[in-house]
């Protein structure tokens, strides 16, 4: 009887474990739906390091194109962002890896899928949400023609199992970010405004000032 009871208890524990695993998968699917990811990305702040001609640039979602243009006045958005893409290999939808594992994944993404692309400039970037305490490091690549480069960038992101990429464009003095789905059904454009990087850093230095998690050979000399 004791053995039978333990056996039944064991099966109950297995069933409970399976149920918990299923619940986690369901929650992950809900969390990483297009609408959920949209909310996450809208709340976050983007920082680009060593942007050609501009240095460090931090960006947040603007309410209107006019707000975007005013934030870059009088020089306008960095010219390097006129046809640029941002992507990462960090934590694909539903995954949660260590920072070291994400750093290694970024190295694979760069060496295997990005380094041979015909970009005109490239630099480091990261997205961060100070309130929620997350940060994702990645790459920004500028091209002569965004339309010609888009498919290759999407393929690179797909190889890293990513949900979406960012595409930047400059029009009428405003900066626009297009969130283009890779593993998700998403395609929308949002005006972006420049924000004070010093204030962002001061709000969470342990997060914002972390060393960039990517290959040491990036950007290439």
Summarize the structure in words.
This protein has 221 residues and is α+β, with helices and mostly antiparallel strands. It has 2 domains: 1-31; 33-208, no CATH class. Helix content is 40%, strand content 28%. It is built from 7 helices and 8 strands; from the N terminus they run H-H-E-E-H-E-H-E-E-H-E-E-E-H-H. It has helices at residues 2-31, 34-43, 65-71, 99-114, 146-159, 197-203, 205-208, and strands at 45-51, 55-61, 83-87, 121-129, 134-142, 164-171, 174-181, 187-195. It has an 8-stranded antiparallel beta barrel, surrounded by 5 helices.
User: Which sheet architecture does the biggest sheet show?
Assistant: 8 strands, antiparallel, barrel
Q: Mean pLDDT, as a whole number? A: 85
Distance between the termini: 72 Å
Number of strands: 8
From the helix content, strand content and strand pairing, which structural class follows?
alpha+beta
Strand-residue proportion: 25-35%
Shape: globular
Radius of gyration from CA coordinates: 20 Å
Please tally the helical runs, counting DSSP H or I stretches of 4 or more residues: 7
> Order of helices and strands, N to C?
HHEEHEHEEHEEEHH
Total domain modules? 2
Task: Estimate percent helicity.
Answer: 25-40%
Q: Which stretches of 5+ consecutive residues score pLDDT under 50?
A: 1-34
Write out the strand line-up for the largest beta sheet, numbering strands in chain order.
1-2-8-7-6-3-5-4
């Amino acid at each position: 009887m004791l053995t039978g009871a333990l056996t039944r208890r064991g099966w109950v524990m297995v069933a409970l474990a399976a149920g918990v695993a299923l619940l986690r998968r369901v929650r992950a699917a809900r969390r990483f739906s297009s609408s959920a990811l949209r909310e996450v990305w809208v709340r976050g702040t983007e920082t680009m390091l060593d942007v050609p001609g501009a240095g460090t640039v931090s960006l947040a979602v603007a309410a209107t194109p006019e707000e975007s243009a005013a934030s870059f006045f009088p020089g306008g958005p960095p010219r390097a962002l006129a046809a640029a893409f941002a992507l990462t290999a960090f934590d694909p939808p539903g995954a949660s890896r260590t920072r070291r594992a994400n750093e290694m994944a970024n190295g694979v993404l760069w060496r295997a899928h990005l380094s041979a692309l015909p970009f005109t400039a490239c630099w480091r970037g990261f997205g961060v949400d100070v309130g929620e305490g997350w940060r994702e490091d990645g790459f920004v690549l500028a091209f002569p023609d965004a339309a010609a480069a888009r498919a290759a960038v999407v393929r690179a992101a797909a190889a890293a199992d990513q949900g979406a990429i960012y595409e930047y464009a400059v029009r009428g003095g405003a900066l626009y970010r297009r969130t283009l789905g890779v593993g998700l059904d998403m395609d929308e454009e949002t005006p972006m405004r420049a924000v004070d990087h010093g204030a962002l850093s001061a709000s969470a230095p342990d997060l914002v000032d972390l060393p960039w998690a990517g290959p040491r050979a990036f950007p290439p000399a």
